[in-house]
Design brief:
Elements (H helix, E strand, L loop, with lengths): L2 E8 L3 E2 H14 L7 E6 L19 E6 L2 H15 L6 E2 L2 E8 L14 E2 L6 E9 L2 H10 L12 H17 L6 H10 L3 E9 L6 E6 L4 E6 L2 E2 L3 E2 L14 E6 L11 E4 L4 E6 L2 E7 L13 E3 L5 E2 L15 H7 L1 H9 L3 E2 L8 E2 L8 H5 L3 E6 L1 H18 L3 E5 H7 L7 E7 L5 H12 L3 E6 L5 H5 L2 E4 L12 H17 L7 H21 L3 H11 L4 E6 L4 H15 L2 E6 L16 E6 L5 H13 L3 E7 L3 H4 L6 E5 L7 H19 L18
Parallel strand pairs: 22-23, 22-24, 24-25, 25-26, 27-28, 27-29, 29-30, 30-31
Antiparallel strand pairs: 1-6, 1-14, 2-5, 3-4, 3-6, 7-8, 8-9, 9-10, 10-16, 11-14, 11-15, 12-13, 15-19, 16-17, 17-18, 20-21
Helix pairs in contact: 3-4, 4-5, 7-13, 7-14, 9-13, 9-16, 10-11, 13-14, 14-19, 15-19, 16-19
């Protein structure tokens, strides 16, 4: 979804050109989240060169907004700089700039709807926003009655205008007493409903920024620049909040990708926290939700002390390396990402009795999970498909009924969740809006909540009782690839851990552990099909539709393969449970429609052979995915094309089988001329409903 970024330099001189580049690069790091317009706000040229804090004036900041990509914004900014003769060499010892990439939810992609949104022509208050304000129409109607004029169709515009309204009323009532920036923002928050992450900048509070959140992700990065002759750049973690006058740079961002190149010292902002950056210090207030009428007394708050954490990621992880696209890189990284996912979790000490798994985040809760009335998997999109792929093995090894829920549908139905249930929440980002709401719903109903996510410190990781990080590494491409396969592996290990106390399935568990050890090598083997998938993509480039049939473990593979083609290649594709073929889908079959049938060796193999014969009898244009050596036996005619993949233990076969479909989707997209990393209308992290 939207990406927000801010940069504040304190007691360190930075030229305007440098500040602009930091803001632009921050937005580039957030491009993968999906967007259709972008904007920034910086201070106007109202001070002497290299001015100090004592030279502050209250001239309106400069706001630049542009529809299209970030490079369009960069071009328009420098064009306006040239026209206005803005001095790029002007430097500031302290400066606060904000930036935003917008993914349209209210109002079409247009300059007027881009962020930062402002309180009016004087830009007294400016806001960048990720999320949705659900009560914006009520707030807008109230503000219209008080004479405010709205220029955009966004829900965000009510926020800076509400801030100005609150500031004007509070200043009038204070009778000359100072109204702080925090007081204004807290009062604004009290009237907002929905999910949001916000950064405020104001001409009334120069060189200050305030960040707050409810539901949407936001973090603070801290970089102290105090030089130490022995140790270089020194950092005192226990004093980072203080206004000590030391030079430092502070960053606010929707996620770590935009911060890691500057610093690894971060603080993940919690829901309800208001983070105030002022005079080089950071103060944190905890907001208590207490709705009231406009102009009512300010909300009650409490001060919070928080510790910084260290990002466990490198800049290289978010670069493309020698690959042309992130999706291509992430597909080919899967042998390494799977190895990392399993590292330290598989136990095999030579003797067969020693083959097991260790999931440290779950060990204290395994007995409770085993006694569960049922296990409920909850997710959206690719994460849901990964859980679906793991459901059969979890049912087999645990003996506990397993049900599947799409997060939004569970909430719409208000489906029953019981205290005796274990609810497993699967999300790559750990910030998916519907999944988070479903998590709160399950917590309210007393269920044991388990999180499976790729993001340390995410909302799901923080708010579940226990969980497992998939450790797949940063995933930048909007279409999930390596996170999907790592999710399946983690959930297979979850099944092994839950069923680890059962003697009857010991041989089965040992075979799966052996299969997990060998899985990265098998994925390397299947990646050799890259050119073959490119050739197949060339044959399908002009097609309008694609069907994918699977069953058993590979029903999820059919859904996920079709989803990948749909997401990035913009081709209609549908994953179908092969057992349902005669109940409607068979009517679509003719000699023109390409059909992929997944028929690798497992318990459903003979049934898939029957499906292939029936499709062939109706002149279906068949593409069959089969185990190595089976092409001659499963392909009924010369017109049938085979994709041969390595055979592994059945519950891990979906990891192998999805890779050729990922490659097919990638090559189809490139050949059709679409943006493979930023598909039309889609966002990486869906943080709004």
């Amino acid at each position: 979804m939207c990406g927000i970024f801010a940069y504040l330099n304190y007691n360190v001189k930075r030229e305007r050109s440098y500040i602009l580049q930091v803001l632009f690069n921050g937005l580039r790091r957030l491009e993968y989240r999906g967007y259709d317009s972008a904007g920034i706000a910086i201070d106007s040229p109202s001070r002497p060169q290299c001015s100090s804090d004592s030279d502050l004036t209250s001239s309106p900041p400069l706001v630049f907004r542009q529809e299209g990509n970030i490079e369009s914004l960069v071009k328009s900014v420098y064009q306006e700089v040239g026209e206005t003769e803005l001095n790029l060499e002007e430097c500031f010892s302290t400066h606060a700039g904000i930036a935003h990439t917008r993914w349209a939810t209210h109002g079409e992609p247009a300059q007027r709807n881009s962020h930062p949104q402002t309180s009016g022509p004087a830009n007294e208050f400016m806001v960048v926003h990720n999320g949705v304000i659900t009560n914006y129409e009520v707030l807008k109607a109230t503000l219209l009655r008080h004479g405010f004029i709205f220029e955009s169709e966004t829900d965000t515009e009510v926020i800076p205008k509400l801030a100005k309204f609150v500031y004007d009323k509070a200043t009038e009532a204070a009778g000359g007493q100072v109204v702080t920036f925090s007081q204004v923002v807290l009062e604004v928050m009290r009237h907002l409903e929905g999910a949001y992450a916000l950064i405020f900048k104001s001409v009334h509070y120069p060189n200050e920024l305030i960040a707050c959140k409810r539901g949407s992700p936001l973090l603070l990065g801290v970089k102290e620049l105090t030089e130490n002759k022995d140790n270089g750049s020194a950092f005192e973690e226990n004093k980072f909040l203080s206004k000590d006058g030391k030079p430092k740079e502070l960053f606010l961002s929707s996620d770590a990708n935009a911060v890691v190149e500057h610093t690894k010292k971060v603080l993940v902002i919690e829901d309800g926290e208001v983070v105030h950056l002022k005079d080089g210090g950071v103060s944190i207030l905890k907001y208590e939700n207490d709705m009231g009428e406009l102009g009512a007394s300010l909300s009650r708050t409490s001060s919070v002390r928080r510790a910084l954490s260290v990002l466990e990621m490198e800049v290289e992880q978010i670069n493309k390396g020698h690959y042309e696209h992130y999706m291509q890189k992430e597909i080919h990284e899967q042998p390494e990402s799977l190895t990392t996912t399993m590292r330290g979790r598989l136990i095999r000490r030579g003797s067969s009795k020693s083959k097991s798994v260790l999931l440290g985040g779950l060990k204290d809760h395994l007995k409770t999970i085993r006694r569960s009335r049922r296990i409920v998997f909850i997710g959206c999109g690719t994460s849901y498909n990964a859980a679906l792929a793991a459901r059969p093995i979890l049912e087999e090894l645990s003996g506990v009924p397993v049900t599947m829920e799409i997060a939004s549908d569970l909430l719409d139905r208000e489906g029953p969740i019981y205290r005796e249930d274990t609810a497993v929440f699967v999300s790559q980002s750990g910030e998916t809006a519907d999944t988070l709401l479903a998590l709160q719903y399950a917590l309210d109903n007393g269920a044991l909540c388990v999180g499976i996510t790729n993001t340390v410190g995410s909302a799901i990781a923080r708010n579940t009782h226990c969980g497992v990080h998939i450790n797949a590494g940063a995933e930048i491409g909007v279409a999930s690839t390596k996170a999907y396969t790592s999710q399946i592996v983690v959930m297979a290990m979850l099944a092994l851990a839950i069923g680890g106390d059962t003697i009857s399935n010991q041989a089965r568990r040992e075979a799966i552990v052996d299969g997990l050890y060998d899985l990265p090598n098998k994925v390397r083997e299947v990646l050799e099909l890259d050119q073959e998938m490119k050739d197949l993509a060339n044959l399908l480039i002009a097609e309008q539709s694609l069907l994918v049939f699977g069953r058993g473990y590979n029903y999820a593979t059919a859904l996920e393969g079709a989803l990948k083609v749909k997401e990035v290649a913009l081709m209609h594709s549908e994953g179908i449970l092969a057992g349902e073929m005669k109940h409607g889908p068979l009517a679509l079959v003719d000699e023109n429609l390409p059909i992929v049938v997944i028929a690798t060796h497992d318990a459903c193999f003979s049934k898939q052979q029957s499906v292939i014969q029936q499709l062939h009898a109706r002149r279906g244009r068949l593409i069959v995915m089969c185990s190595k050596g089976d092409a001659a036996s499963v392909c009924p005619g010369e017109s049938c094309r085979a994709i041969e993949v390595p055979q592994v233990v059945d519950c891990l076969q979906p990891v192998i089988n999805v890779v050729p479909l990922q490659l097919l989707a990638y090559h189809l997209t490139v050949l059709r001329g679409f943006n493979v990393d930023q598909p039309r209308n889609l966002a990486k992290s869906v943080t709004t409903q």
